[in-house]
Amino acid sequence: MNWNATSAESITSPADMSEIDPRIHFRILEDIARDLSGDINFPTCMDAAILVRNSLKDPLASLERIAQVVGIEPLISSKLLRLANSVSYNPSGKRVSDLSTAITRLGFEAVRTTSLAVAMDQMLKSRNLAAYDDIAHQAWEHSLQVAAIARVLARRIGRVKPDEAMLAGLVHDIGIFYLLFRAAEYQEYRDNREAMLDLIKGWHESIGESLLHILGLPEHITEAVRDHDQPQNIEAPSNIRDILYFANLLAMDSAHGLPIEIDPGWAEKAIGDRARFADLLDEAEEDIRDLRTALAL
Predict the structure, then answer these.
(1) Alpha-carbon distance 152 to 287, whole Å?
(2) CA–CA distance from 131 to each of 56, 124, 181, 190 (Å)?
(3) Does domain 17-294 bear CATH number 1.10.10.60?
(4) CA dihedral sign, ordered 19, 24, 30, 31
(5) How far is the C-alpha of 244 from the C-alpha of 137, rounded, in Å?
(6) pTM (2 d.p.)
(7) Percentage of the chain surpassing pLDDT 70?
(8) CA–CA separation, 67 vs 111, rounded Å?
(9) pLDDT per position as a tens digit, 11-49
(10) What Rg do the C-alpha atoms of the chain give, in angstroms?
(11) CA nearest to 221, candidates 262, 280, 161
């Protein structure tokens, strides 16, 4: 779905809203359409991620310049240093204390990942989100698990950069965070959990894809995020989209309480797909712990 539309009237929901009056979503969808088409200022919680996006898009930006930009935001710089000194990225135990060395060790994808983690952090901490704190933190835990599993799976198949796979995993549900953050500003969602879940179920994938386009993520990552919760007939992962599908499927246990449903007709295949890669869950535990520590909210 192209979210450059300027009116919610032009948007048709991909979800079945038979139990929810779709008119309840009209106002927020129209506002979000304006947000994402650039008609009004982008939410301030994304400032750090946009700053990093701009520096990474500059082909003339040196490592020192990027480190300087990242250093302006202490949350990003501190998380990058923690990640660079984690077991996954520092098996030798040689600690680093400066950003340039940390970025060299981690790579630019880790800078993107960390800046987006900070943005998600800021959305989670909105004071209006108290009633949905459980959903927000379940979504965060699920994202960490998908990111770690995707990284391990990419290492195993050898066709996708592990850090790109980790980035895709971390941000695949950014639409949930953004919708929670925005919807909590509307009274009709603060007191209506069913409406909130319906909004997330119907729109988090398309809105997440649009957000990632705006934030300058590579096209193959934004495409991987599209329809990540939908049934797919993939025998073996060969690209980042496939990896995200399997990682999301393997981590679904951590999404308890979120609006994720498995079609009964697809359940048998989903169970089989999970069983084929179940050993990845044990292999990913260390990566999950490292991410949880480095990107702690």
Answers:
(1) 8
(2) 36, 12, 12, 7
(3) no
(4) negative
(5) 20
(6) 0.79
(7) 84
(8) 10
(9) 334 444 445 666 778 889 888 888 887 644 556 667 778
(10) 19
(11) 161
